What we know:
It is built from 5 helices and 5 strands; from the N terminus they run H-E-H-H-E-E-E-H-E-H. It has helices at 5-13, 30-40, 52-65, 109-123, 139-145; strands at residues 21-24, 70-75, 78-87, 92-100, 128-130.
Amino acid sequence: MAESGIGRLFRHSQQPTPDFTVRPVAPGDLSGCAAVYVEAFADPPHNLTWSLQDAEELLGVFLQREPSLCFCAEAKRTVIGIAFCSTVARYRATIEELAVLPAWQGKGVGKALLDKCLEELRGRGYTQVDLIANLRAPAMRFYERNGFRVVRHYAVLVKDL
């Protein structure tokens, strides 16, 4: 007997929720955070070729500067996503890094990390948050769906040394 349209709809709407938690980053998490960073940004359009050590040093700076604004998502004792924020002014903060392992993208990890950042920043009285993202990155749609908008009064300038 064929399943009715309502039964089929109900069955498909019952997607299992991935089992992960979001928590503050601890100093012992840096190597796992660096691994997420390197893997998440290795493919186009980013093509990042950082070493784990370089990524760990970068993330360590954020963790040292504002440890209470650094979060990770963890599943089965493995870091699967990261979010590192910093404060810019009395009212404005920046999401410096938000990355999720490719295997976990599209499963709510990025949204949970973003929500945690926004909740923490709102609770501290910040009224604006910014981030820099590659306009060609698939994550642009994610950010726009979550209320971010592209503003064009900034330019990112780079000079090779």
